[in-house]
Structures are given as structure tokens and as C-alpha cells.
């Protein structure tokens, strides 16, 4: 009875509806294997028994899994079995960590029983304490399970247990910068939920822990980007957080030497990994399903279900910000989805905004929507992050005017009040957002939104003052209040300050009436769905401005004081290039340097002459050689140099001279920055003095991205001016690789591409000049790299392309090969038309055969005269057709074409079929015959025998579809009159179902016409009647006639052969070759007879086997 299947699960909770699953069976089997081996044995005997059973890999995985299940299921033996697990595991517990990540925590954490959860946290604590590989992935998955807006006992217990584990094992945590940043982001976010008095102890524990991470590991936390500021402002009233705020604003270098201030954070886009970590896997699946699989107009029941499960408590309203940031940053639908009837992102966000019941949460949600607008940079930010904002306002004007007006009001007031010292930059960021929205045609015009006559008069005035360039030129005359819709709420809207003391004082911009919220609980009621235009990159989602329509604005709004504004009054502005603040910052960095270096830096700051600046940098290099720098000195020196060399790093003109020659290249190397480069490449590789220079360049590269491509330019330019090009070139390669290694980066390809991407944006002319050296010197990392290739092609012009083509034809450049082209081609389908056409020019230069394109053929789409050009792949198809045009048909080519889905609107297959039929009629008939006869027979008895050919076989229905298209579109009826084609049609008709026979009746009608003409010669033969044997008798008579004709032909051939033997043996050889290839298949009997006769006549011929 011990092997009976248990009713309940060992690890998961079950119910009548949700019982045991296949995973339970797997875990039970592994658990029973362990128990059967160790039952009744001592600890030492158990070790021997387990080790003895580990001969097979499968047994190893099963035993590790069984030990894991026993640890989670039974706390009494958990310690012993964990010890067993660490002893018997031969893969560093890889099976255990992967099972935890992908199954137990990642998929079924919410189903774990209470005891299993406690054992799971105990196990994680032991894994972290032991430092097991990949346990950081387990911790990251547990962070995701801490749900935002959830203050239930289970969720609070998980948050507290995990923070205890991380505090106890802080040295382990510090080894993983990404986990440090993710932990900081998570606990800053949930601190907002733990504001109640019942959580005072936990809150203090979390505050102490997270502030410690921020202060001690701020360099790691910088990777969070702008959303770090958004989270901090929500909890700014906490004493420790407020103290950190003041240092962040007034003393940024105290947190990190290279940190310049809050602007640096706000200009850094937050990675999507941080948005993902704030949603549980279950939430993520459901919100992704809602945004990618639900049709517009059918979303209401899904939204109501989601709201009941996750947004039904007052505390859960804070989750709306996490959802909005996730939708904006992580869900970027393709053009196909944008043009489909799937619910657009703006509608989901509109529902989240309009159904919110908390004014504070509503204001924070608006901020989450517009956050990427504030310092939007068209070069580095993604338009998909700003698209939803404008669209939710635009499409809510009629069905939900209050939502539109509140968003418009919010965006107008946030510009001056978010952070007053940065008001100009924020205004520029919002204006950049609106300009790109218009350039990418997310909306055709902003006038309907900004000049809405139903808008409150004060709000219209505010919009005109804030966005004058986007409003109509006509001056707004006096407008009576009667002309406007009366405001829904009599409460006035005050202006809000994003960084106001707690960062939570946004109630003024929220929808102030509960009834108003209830009346617009979702955007699903909109009748028409409008989507963004098809662009190379879908327009970035921009957050919607606050609603203006029915909310009256107070005449003299009072802005609450901002703590950041108060702090800024203490010191002058930061980041103003010409201000005294820069010198103060520089002097702080100089404090970490030796006196000699400090003197050189100060001289460099005041020196304007280029030659003198070069001499000063040479002196600096000499000092570095004589006295190695420590890490702190290197970081601060790098910051000073990047600041002082900023003009040289961004010269405003191309680095490459207009007229390229050895002399002009030599002159271009007068940049003081290049003195450092020159000192580096002149030192031998084994010279210990190279390392401090390399570390200095690494820190400069981190501080200023231009350093990387300046170094690449210097390496090539220094080779051109040198006589020993090859020798120096090899030195350059090793030097650039050393720079990557010194930076601690393993992905060299990503390192090169990053520098080239910046180079392409700043100086595309240099990019095209340097790219051949990149491909030749770093071929392993660059050849066949689709990302690099697109980067190059999007920056090329026609003359630069011609240069590359010439180099390829000369054999001095190879950008890809046959093996990598198929992958590049598939990825290129999403590129711009010009980039694809340039790619095909290079493919022709590389002599890529058509075989390399066959695997992509079934994925290519085309529709003639389609209005949705983005849904077609005309560039690839037209070029593949031109390649096929130069090929003679083969079985592989024909099968690939026929496997392409038949669509009447796609002329691709029928075009090449017609082209081949016109030139290779007989060969095409034979090839089609092979395709049809290779079809697996429909009989079930032959299914196993034909199973191996199914993968390559073309479905009969598809073959007939293409043949019928050939008949109708090109009028190729004569081709079907060939004897081989008649046999093919007859065979196909016999294999078809009745439905198929009706479908292709016109095609099969060609057989009937041939069969009617054949009986005509019968009266001349007058064969004896013999029941259904007419065809056989006819064949016999025809055979006799052919034999007579054959004898005459043989006599004539022998006479010709004898004559040619006398003249020239070469003619005989040619004639014999023709006989073999042309006559052998037609009449084997005639060939045998002819061969024997020829052998008798000519002794020079030898009998050979054929």
C-alpha cells in the first residue's frame, strides 16, 4: 500500500477544482526513490547508498529532485537531507536552482502550502549562506513574488523573511550588482505599502536595509535610472530617506565620485527588468494576455476579473503605477498587433486611470504615465514609451472628457513644479515628446486636443502658455463661460509639486469626484479604436496630459513647497557648464589626487593652446607611469579629464578630414586626448605601466561614451600614418581588446557595437571609413552579426555602399558568409526598405547562392497592391526571384517554392514557375512528377513506411493550388498537354478526395480532353474485339511498328558511324555520348541492339557497363 498514489500534493495546496498535476507525479516519483534508498539507514549509510546510485545522469537528477522535495515537505529531516544534497550533487545544485526558478517559485509559488513556503525560505537561506551558483536567480524570483499593494499576512511575511536573509548575508549580496539594484527597487516600492502603524517594526527594518544599500552601493543602484527618483519621492517623509534626498540633491559626490546629480538619474532610462520585478509572474501573464490577445470591445469581463483579484482593496491602488510602468516599458506591440483589432495599450491604461478610487494613487499613476516625457531624448529614449499618453488623451476627448482634461492639466503643471531648477530641461523634454509624436504621426495634429472649445477657459489659457508652438495661431478671444461645459466638481484643482515633501501630494490633479470616477470606470465603451501609424519603430507611448475639460482651475493656485526646491536654495545650480558649481565639483575631485597631478589638471583647465594641452597630458602620463593610481584616484582623474576635454570629445565636425591623405590624417591626430592613446599603444604588452593607463581609459569610457570611438579612430588613423601598417594594426587589435578586458566585459561584440552605435549617431562618415577594419580585425565577433550590419546599413549613403561593394569584390572585406546569411536575412525583414536593398547589394557582391535563402522563403509575406506595406516582404522576395531567375530548376528549389503557402494575391511562386516552364518545359514536367509521386499514400497501411518522407513532401492540395494558379494566371495550358503532365494530373486526380476534385475540376478537365482525342486512330488498326483490352492491343501494334523503324534507324546509324571512324575518332566519341544521354532512356532495347552492332564494327570500342 506504500506505493498508492496520494490524494493530495506534498508541496502544493489542492482543491476539488484544482487537484494534483503532472508535476506532483514527477516529484512523488523522485521523493519515493530517495526514501526507498535511505529508509532505515544511518546518515553515513545513506551517503553511501545515494552515491552508489549516481552512476546514471538521469538517476542523479532524480535523486537531487527527490532530496529537494523531501527538504520542502518535511522540516524534521530537512537539515540532514540538505547535507546529503550538497554531498551527492555533481552539478553545483544546478538541478535544484533550476527547479526552484522555473517550476516551484516561477510557476506555482501561489499554490505552495504554508509549511512548504517556510521550508522554501529556510532552503534559500542555506543556499545563499553556502554561496551556491545561480542562487541569485532564485532570490530574484522571490523578489517578484512580493506583490505590490498587498498587505496580507503571507505577503508581509515573505517580504520580512527575505529582507532578513539578505541582511544576514550582505557580503554575498554585494557580489551581484543587478540583484542589489533589484532589491533596492523592490523594497523602495513596498515601503509605500507598509505605512500603517502595524508595520512599524518591519518598516524600520526595511528602511535601514535599503538606505544602507543606497549609500554603500549607490554605483550599483545607478543602473535603476529615472524610476529610482520616482520611488524615492513617494516615501520622502521617512526621516532616513529625507536625509538621503538632501545628499542626492546637494552633495551627489558623497554618494559616488562620478555621480553628477539628480539630472544624471533622470536622463537614464529605466531597464525593463525593474518593471518586471514588480509584477508577480501570474500578474504578468494576465496583463500581457489582456494587451496582446483580447479583442477591443471584449475586454470588460477580463478587466473586471483582474480588478476583483488584484485591485479590490484600498491598499492595492498603489499597484496601478507598477502596471502602467510595466505596460509602457515592457509591452511594445508589433505593427501587426497595432493594426489588428487587439485592445491597444492606451485603452488598458485609460481603464487603470479612470477606475482608480484613490486621489493619491491616481496622481501617482499619471506621473507613471508621463514620467518618460519629462526628460525625453529623441536619440536615446523610445517613442513606444510616450505613445500611450497622447493616445489615451486623444481617444478620451469625447467618451471621457474629464480624464483628458485632468491629464492635460497635470502635464501643464508638472513642467514648472516637478523640480524647479530643471524646469527648462523638463519643458524641453516634453516639447521633444510632442514633436516626435507629430513626426512619427502617432496623431495627425494636436489642435483637436489643445484647442478644444469644450475645455475650461482657464485651462485653455494655461495650455496656450505652456505649448504655444503646438496651438493654433489665432488669439483666443473673450469667451463666455456659458460656452463651456459646466465643471463636474466644484472643488478647485491646485498645482502639484512632484517632489513635494512626501511626493504624495498629487490629490489636486486627481479626479476629485467619486461619481466622476464611477462614470468612467473603463475605456472599453469607446466605439472606435484608433491605432498608431505604421512606422519603422512604433511611436513611443507618451503619457497623457491632465484633463482640462470639466475641471475648473483656481485663479491663483498655491503651490506647496518642495523639499528639493528648498534644498536647491542653499547652493547654486548644478550642471551649468559655465557656472561656478562646475569648478567646485572639479575641486572636490582634485582632493583625491596627488599635488603634481592636481597642478597639471589646473593648468590644463586654464590652458587654451592645443600644443600646450598636449604637453600637459604627456606630463600627466609620465606621472602615471612613475606612480600607479589607486581606484579612487583613477575614477576622479577620469572625471576631471572628461570634463576638461569635453570640447575635443564633441568637436562639432567630422573627425575625418574632408580630403583623406596621410598628411591630413596626421593633422587630425593633434587632439590632446590622443596623447593618452599614443602612450598606451607604444608600450609593450608585458609592460606593467600599461595597466594604469588602461584603467584610466576604462573610467573615462564609462564617464563619456565618445572616448570609445575616438580610440577606434585613433587606432586606424595611426596605422595609416605608419609605414609598418600590419605590425601596428595587430598592436591596435590587442590594445582595443585589452580595453574591453580591463572594463571587465566578456561580450566583446557588444562592446564594439556600443562604440560604433555612438559613432554612427555622431559621425556616420567615420563609421563607414572605419568599418572595414572592424570586420577584418574582429571577424570572429562581427562577421555575420545582424545587429552590427543593420547599424552600418542605416548610416550608409550610396557612395559609401559602393566603396564597401568594391572592397568585397576585391576580396579585402567580408561582412558575412553563406552560413550566416539566412539568419541575417530573417532579421532584416524588420529593417527599413533602404537598409534591405543595401543588404541585397552586399549579398550580390558576396556571391551568396540562392540555397542560403530557401529556409526563409516560407516566412516571407506578400500581397499585391497592399495598403499595409509593413506587412509585406517585397524587398526580399523580389531579390530572391532575381536569384532564382538565374538558376535552372531543381527538385529542392521546386519543393521549397511549392511549400510556400498559396495565396491568390501573392504572384511570387507562379511568376518563377512560368519563367521556368517557358525555358525548361520538359525538365519542369519531370520535376513536378517527382514531387507528386513522392507524396505519401493516403492508405493507413502505408503510413509508417512513408513517415520519413512527410517532412520534405509537399501537400498534394498545395501542389494543385499552385498548378491551378499557373493555369489561370499565365494561361499555361500547352504545358499541361505534355504527356508527363497528363500522367501527373491523372495520378493526382486518383489521390484526391471528392471535395478536391470539385475544387480543381477545371484543372482536371484538361485530362478529359486528351482522353477523348486518343481513340481516333483505332478504325485503321481494326483490332479484334476483346473486352476492355483495346489499349493493350494498340500498344502491341505500336511496339511492332517501332521495332521495324528501329531496325532502319540502326542500319543508318552504323553506316554513319563507319564513315566517321575513317575521318576522326573524336566525332565518334561525341556521337556515342549523344547516343547515351539522349537515346538510352527512350528505348533500352534499341540501345542494346545498337551497342552490339557497333562493337562488332569497331574494335576500338570496348564493352562497358552502364
From TrEMBL:
Keyword GTP-binding: no
Region (Disordered): 530-551, 932-951, 1008-1044
Ranges annotated as biased composition (Basic residues): 1022-1035
GO cellular component terms given for this protein: cytoplasm; nucleus
UniProt domain Ints3-like C-terminal: residue ranges: 601-1006
Keywords: Cytoplasm, Membrane, Nucleus, Transmembrane, Transmembrane helix
Transmembrane segments: 1053-1075
Pfam families: HEAT_Ints3_C, Ints3_N
Integrator complex subunit 3 N-terminal domain segment(s): 59-465
Alphabetical list of PANTHER family matching this protein: INTEGRATOR COMPLEX SUBUNIT 3
Family: Belongs to the Integrator subunit 3 family.
Official protein name in the record: SOSS complex subunit A homolog
Source species: Scylla paramamosain (Mud crab)
